[in-house]
Amino acid sequence: MSLTVRTISSADHLAYLTSLPSASFLQTPAWAAVKAEWRGESIGWFDGTQIVGAGLVLYRKLPKVAKYLAYLPEGPVVDFASALEGPGGLKAWLDPMVEHLAAEGAFGVRMGPPVVLRAWDAATVKKAVADPALRTLGDAPATTSNGRAIALTRELHRLGWREQVAEGGFTAGQPKYNFWLPLVDEEGTPRTEDEVLRGMNQLWRRNIKKADKSGVEVTLGGADDLQAFHTIYSETAVRDHFTPRPLPYFQTMWDALNGEDPDRMRLYLAHHEGDLVAATTLVKVGRHAWYSYGASTTEKRDVRGSNAIQWKMIRDAMAAGCSVYDMRGITDTLDPEDSHVGLIQFKVGTGGSAVEYAGEWDLPINRLLYVAFQQYMKRR
């Protein structure tokens, strides 16, 4: 097998992704429109005339120089296990990609192979948080480990790729640690709502019941409701000390993702006696659903709108045939004094698992420009 990489159309890119069980929404052609400050390109791997892999590349320009960092967030979408073990190994897949990106003006490449190295079930995470001898999730014994994924990271090292240091579990790009709620059992059989509920801790089940008894109603919103979402999202940002994205970002995200697939992105609204108390966004590609953004008001937190809205999204993901409900990033800290532990405990209450991705990896092509870019990003 002799692989080649070349630019493909958005239509061919989307058609390839549609043929798969799932892929990260960050690798859909539409995501390039969301990240309009980057230049987007769809690329495909070809074995002869057959497409066998795809990727969304986002090009970040260096100031004053027509050179770029080529970034593939949670990508590319290739079968990394087969690539590692196939003819020519991983090098046969990565070399033609790097050659193509270099021809497009890339001084360096950053990618995030979407493979899971290790996982910790809810009981293990709960026990680890309570153990003062453990400071990070990586210190705790994993429930499961993926030997082939670990071998992949070793091969990347050997081929000259550099893993980006994750501070608290986060790199400059995507989180290294995510939290998954499986919606199918180990044999792939869909779990029932009762089975998922029984897997949650007592507090989650109690809060879901309390929201129901309090009269919280969860409905789907449309583009016109993004303003209401953004109002309480901004309130949440002040309360939780993070910088909120502007409203136009969500409007662009809505138009781009739903323009590609009318059910790609959903907006959920939780009301209590006419008051909006929580709002969330969900993104779905194939059999993978992501809770992407969430917000809640400081007032009426006792009616548990956040639990009600999560339960509605989980049930809708199950009804859509999804195998995973992805609650996105968590930090790796187990320090009880760290405020991020509260987020971990909230997600652990669903009964899911913390998963560790392979992380993000850089390959410098022009080392001088790569170092200059690193210094530029640090100054920013």
From TrEMBL:
<keyword id="KW-0961">Cell wall biogenesis/degradation</keyword>
<dbReference type="GO" id="GO:0008360">
    <property type="term" value="P:regulation of cell shape"/>
</dbReference>
<dbReference type="InterPro" id="IPR003447">
    <property type="entry name" value="FEMABX"/>
</dbReference>
<protein>
    <submittedName>
        <fullName>Aminoacyltransferase</fullName>
    </submittedName>
</protein>
<keyword id="KW-0573">Peptidoglycan synthesis</keyword>
<dbReference type="InterPro" id="IPR050644">
    <property type="entry name" value="PG_Glycine_Bridge_Synth"/>
</dbReference>
<dbReference type="GO" id="GO:0016755">
    <property type="term" value="F:aminoacyltransferase activity"/>
</dbReference>
<comment type="similarity">
    <text>Belongs to the FemABX family.</text>
</comment>
<dbReference type="GO" id="GO:0009252">
    <property type="term" value="P:peptidoglycan biosynthetic process"/>
</dbReference>
<keyword id="KW-0133">Cell shape</keyword>
<keyword id="KW-0012">Acyltransferase</keyword>
<keyword id="KW-0808">Transferase</keyword>
<dbReference type="GO" id="GO:0071555">
    <property type="term" value="P:cell wall organization"/>
</dbReference>
<dbReference type="InterPro" id="IPR016181">
    <property type="entry name" value="Acyl_CoA_acyltransferase"/>
</dbReference>
<dbReference type="Pfam" id="PF02388">
    <property type="entry name" value="FemAB"/>
</dbReference>
